[in-house]
Write a structure and sequence with these properties.
Elements lengths: L1 H9 L10 H8 L3 H10 L6 E3 L3 E3 L2 H16 L4 H11 L8 H27 L1
Length: 125
C-alpha cells in the first residue's frame, strides 16, 4: 500500500520551469548520484548546465527520469534494455522539432495515465 502512495506522489510535479538535481531526486525518490550516473548512461537525459556546472532539469527531463525509473525499477529492465526501449519508444532526444516534442509529451502523458489505471485495477482486485 505504501508503494502505491509513493507512486501516486511520484507523478505529482510542481508547475515550475526548472528543477535542481536535489529537487528531481526528491520528486523521483532517487539519490542525486543515481541521476548523474543516468546522465552518463542515457544520452537522451541531458539537463541544461549553468554557472558552476549546476544542472537545471526541465519538465521534459523530469518526465524522462520518471520513465527511466519506471523501466529500471518497476519493469526491471537492465540498463541496456532500458536504453533500447528508450531508443524505440520515441522519447525526447533534445534535437527534435517543437511539434514532435508535443507529440512525445502526449505519449508520456498517455503512458502515465495507463500506469495510473493499472494501479486502480490492482486496488479494485
Amino acid at each position: 500500500m505504501q508503494d502505491r502512495e509513493r507512486n501516486r506522489d511520484f507523478w505529482e510535479v510542481p508547475e515550475r520551469r526548472y528543477f535542481t538535481i536535489g529537487e528531481v531526486a526528491k520528486i523521483c525518490d532517487l539519490k542525486p548520484h543515481v541521476l548523474r550516473y543516468w546522465e552518463q548512461e542515457f544520452t537522451q537525459l541531458r539537463p541544461e548546465k549553468k554557472k558552476g556546472n549546476r544542472r537545471r532539469y526541465n519538465q521534459k527531463d523530469l518526465a524522462l527520469v520518471k520513465h527511466i525509473k519506471e523501466l529500471l525499477h518497476d519493469k526491471e529492465f537492465t540498463i541496456s534494455g532500458a536504453k533500447q526501449q528508450l531508443s524505440t519508444s520515441g522519447l525526447p532526444k533534445g534535437s527534435q522539432a517543437q511539434s514532435s516534442e508535443k507529440t512525445e509529451d502526449k505519449s508520456l502523458l498517455i503512458h502515465s495515465i495507463i500506469n495510473d489505471l493499472e494501479d486502480v485495477l490492482e486496488i479494485l482486485d
